[in-house]
Amino acid sequence: MKEKFTYIVVLATTLLFGHFLLAANCYVYASDVPSIAFSSKRNENYDIYMMDINGKNLQQLTDDLAHETYPTFSPDGQQMAYVSSRAGNDDIYVMNLETKVSEPLTNHPADDFSPAWSPDGRWIAFVSERAGTLDIYKIEPSGANLQQLTDADEKNNTPAWSPDSQFIAYRSFKNPAGIYIMDAEGGNPRRLDNQPNQAWTPAWSPDGKQIAFSAVFFEGYDIGILNVDGTDLRRITRHLNGETSPVWAPDGHTIVFMSWWDRTSDIYRTDINGIIGNRRRLTRHPEIDMGPTWIPTGALSVSPTINTHTTLWGRLKQAVHD
User: Fold this and answer.
1) CB-based contacts of 105: which residues, under 8 Å, 6+ apart?
2) 2-317 adopts what CATH topology?
3) Tell me, what DSSP letter sits at residue 28?
4) 116 and 162 Cβ atoms separated by less than 8 Å
5) Residue 185 burial class via C-beta count within 10 angstroms: exposed 0-12, middle 13-18, buried 19 and up
6) Listing from the earlier edge strand, what are the strands of the sheet with 101-104?
7) What is the pTM of this model?
8) pLDDT tens for residues 225-276?
9) So where are the chain's domains?
């Protein structure tokens, strides 16, 4: 009887410890290590992938013969909006990340693309050609209440929400071209002061005080940072082959971006001081990797798979680092 009791205690302890390790492993991947999503053509067509900020634990989020690009996440991390050409042209879709089921958000003969989910969760801004040129629209995640925010002969694209969801930065081709800021209803557009030539792909800092962008700095396309009031212009990358599509880390100290550093399009990260030694290449693939975006920290659980298998106890004991 004593031996049977001892066996039961050992078995229960083993099962409990196993559950603890599994939960802790998921916590490490989901919460302790920030994750990004991006689009890649590594399987002949564009699909959306995710990985942690160290460039590890790659997982594929979409798998369709159509091109799927421009991921953006709801603030709670439970849904992902993205662009798919599965219906013959580009439309916006929303995926439930738990069920992996996608539903169309837009359905129009013109192309809809470049979605951006507002930080308050109420809106998805996007770009559409439905009025004859590129303009910025917003729509509720349910598909209701479509609103056109820009209405001009010149193209407008790449919307980016301010952290308080009160403003949208975007690229306009009006004269002078560059990055503009409007309120969330489309009013009061103004050009960002003191920006360099041909600035585009704006991204707000988490504190709302700065905007990162890609622009022409004399000899090439690089990433720059400028205060929203137009002061303190800084260039944080320097490379002739071109760098674009910056996004800020939630801590405000790191920027992830797309670069042709080695003549292939890959995802990199650097600190906002642009120190060369702090630059890190996150993807290495001969096909195009592009359009990185942050996944809300801790919201999207990453289950252990063949691609994420580690020694759990060793993972628990070590600190998360490069």
Assistant:
1) 81, 91, 92, 93, 94, 115, 124, 139, 141, 143
2) Neuraminidase (2.120.10)
3) I
4) no
5) exposed
6) 68-73, 79-84, 91-96, 101-104
7) 0.83
8) 999 999 999 999 987 778 999 999 999 999 999 998 777 899 999 999 866 6
9) 2-317
